[in-house]
Amino acid sequence: MTMKLQPVQIATGSNDRESRLVFEDGMLVAVLVLLSGEHDAHAGKWFLEGGFGPVKDVHAPLFDDLETAKAWISTQLVDITSRD
Description:
Blueprint: E1 3-9, E2 18-24, E3 27-34, E4 46-51, H1 66-82
Antiparallel strand pairs: 1-2, 2-3, 3-4
């Protein structure tokens, strides 16, 4: 697996603009957004704004940092391929 994160700014309708597009083997698998100060205790955490394929999970946790988010995404991708 070759995961790459591309920094982007997205229009979320709030101050949450710093984001990362997450690519695995050249395919977009997720969009992560850094939560701003308007989220109080969750400020500075990363949120799965959108996941695709096996990363689509409406119950994804908040992530303390990008490394934790990458590890969680990798687990989702491995789980689906191990079922084949």
